[in-house]
Amino acid sequence: MRKPGETQTKILGFAFFIHSYGRHMDAEHRIFITGSQSIRLLRAARRGEIVSARPAESMQPTPLDCPASKLELEGLFDWLNISEKNPLALLAPNMSQRHWFAKTTPRVLSTQLPAQSFLELVATDSPNHLRLPRKARVFIEAPPLALLRVAQTEAQAVRAGKNEDLVAKLHTLAFACECCGNYSKDPLKPQTGRCHYDKPGTSSRFCDPSSMQSYLSDMSHQNGLKLARFAAKYAIDESGSPMETYINLAFTLPPRYAGLSMTKPLANKQLVVSEEVRAQLKHRSLRPDFQWPDARMLGEYLGDESHSGKPARVEDKNRLQDYILANYKPFFLMFDDVCSVAALNRTALMFAKQFAQSGKPYEEYRIRRLLKDEGFLARQTKLVLALLPPLLRLDEG
Fold it and tell me: What is the pTM of this model?
């Protein structure tokens, strides 16, 4: 037998639930994706084909308290291959605000994040664009925070005995160079897929080494932070490709990190010449891959992708002549010049002879002495295996 007022109470309670649920669905929802899935979306956003991104300077993670099925995440789920076994990793502000929903898993933040930690995904006009949810804004981790995630993964592999400390450093550094460079790896197949290269005069990157270092200096008590700071310290500004990154690091890193400790070149920077010289050149703008202004020396890597065929050969010849007219000593490198430890060291000695003519008379002696160190040569082997793009390794043809 019902008590007086019981029916009215139940009706009022049900009405309150409907009102609250409706108000909840009308509210703005924010999804913060983390980890490797965020990195895949970052690489896709840099390409700007299926999705793009913009900075979200003061944004901080908020709890997802609505089932993902209500937010039209099918497009994201399909592209990221989300399933019960591969759930979407979402950031939660704290332990009390973490929620589990189908095909998602919460990752709890251990501390407040600095500003500029996230990018917001934006739809593109491409016919094959990634379908973003209409009922939620989607955020991914900005490159400095993504670098920390890579460092955490690499550091965990070292602790588990699955990797060596030097290799972890080189892998993390390679990702930092990609973030600060003018290229991005394939989102779905970063090791074997085709790279995206920014067009001359444009840049898809969201940070540079100095802003990356500044961001990480504001953090504390985070796993992998020391490794991430190492990578930010040695990251190359505006490297043009994975091969350029590999060559640059092999020549300039300190010997304890398997490098030859040579003078760090400018990467893809405008060659400064007088107006009188410029009038003699066939190019109005020259941006060599590697430039040592004090030594009047520069280098170019001639990869197969952009330097094959007669038009490319003519362009390379014109550029070579322009460099000579600008009073620079040019070195054009090909794969055979850098594909192994022996090839790297032969090329380094060639560079050293040129440095000797510009105020560094002992550079060749220093390098030859370093190459007698068996421990250093062993570290170089690890660098080649860690950084040389897999499809280009000598043992794979």
Answer: 0.88
Domain ranges of the chain: 29-141, 143-237, 239-397
> What's the pLDDT score for residue 317?
87
Please choose, from the candidates 238, 58, 215, the residue with its C-alpha nearest in 3D space to the C-alpha of residue 139.
58
Q: Which helix (H) or strand (E) holds 56?
A: strand 51-56
Paired tokens of 329: 């000593």
Return d(Cα 379, Cα 256) in angstroms, integer: 8
| Residue from 107, 143, 338 nearest 231 by CA | 143
Residue 397: exposure state from Cβ atoms within 10 A (0-12, 13-18, ≥19): exposed
Kindly report the length of the chain.
397
Q: Could you count the other beta carbons within 10 Å of the beta carbon of residue 125?
A: 6
Q: Which of 349, 351, 381, 382 is nearest to 367 (CA)?
A: 349
pLDDT tens by residue, 125-180? 988 899 998 888 999 999 999 999 999 999 999 999 999 999 999 999 999 999 99
What residues does 141 pair with on adjacent strands?
118
Distance CA 52, CA 335 (A): 33
Q: Which residues lie closer than 8 Å to 324 by C-beta, 6 or more apart? A: 330
Beta bridge partners of 88: 104
CA proximity to 290, closest of 385, 362, 355, 208:
355
The answer to whether 310 and 346 have CB atoms below 8 angstroms apart is no
